[in-house]
Amino acid sequence: MTTGDSKSSYDLPAPEPNPVKERLMLQRLCAKLLGEQSMWLGRYELEHELGSGGMGMVYLARDSHLERQVAIKFLMVQDLAEQHLLAEARAMAKVTHPNVVRVYDCDSADGLTFIVMEYVEGGTLERWLKQQPHALEPILEMFCAAGEGLAAAHDKGLVHRDFKPANVL
What we know:
Strand order of the largest sheet: 1-2-3-4-6-5
Order of helices and strands: HEEEEHEEHH
Shape: globular
Number of helices: 4
Radius of gyration: 19 Å
Low-confidence stretches: none
Strand content: 15-25%
CATH class of the largest domain: Alpha Beta
Structural class: alpha+beta
CATH architecture of the largest domain: 2-Layer Sandwich
Number of strands: 6
């Protein structure tokens, strides 16, 4: 700590508030305190967070009706979520291609709006590239496959506004 300065060298900036993440964490805490094993959102049993970015976060979940794993996407700002996510789900549902994640549903439960999507096992292209050195041919194959999915979206008039290796599964 420096003299004459009210801040210590240990002061860290407060994280940006995230009401969606806070709500999910509170629900998980309540479930644990009440002895429940799982956290539910409608018919979906949330397992754990897969990732998050500037706009939203994605959770791995289990669809109890169809008995399959799914990915559930939430937007950070729920005020805009319902309209935005419904538009995104409708746009994604237009694209049918093996290299494009399928949309199963767009729903609301417990005050949260979300998109339910196909869960793709494995990691991102970014993680795959960093894991170990790869020969040029498999790298080119991965990028071409991603490009084919992107072209399928473009054929339907859609533009992916955040296309990068971290967003390619």
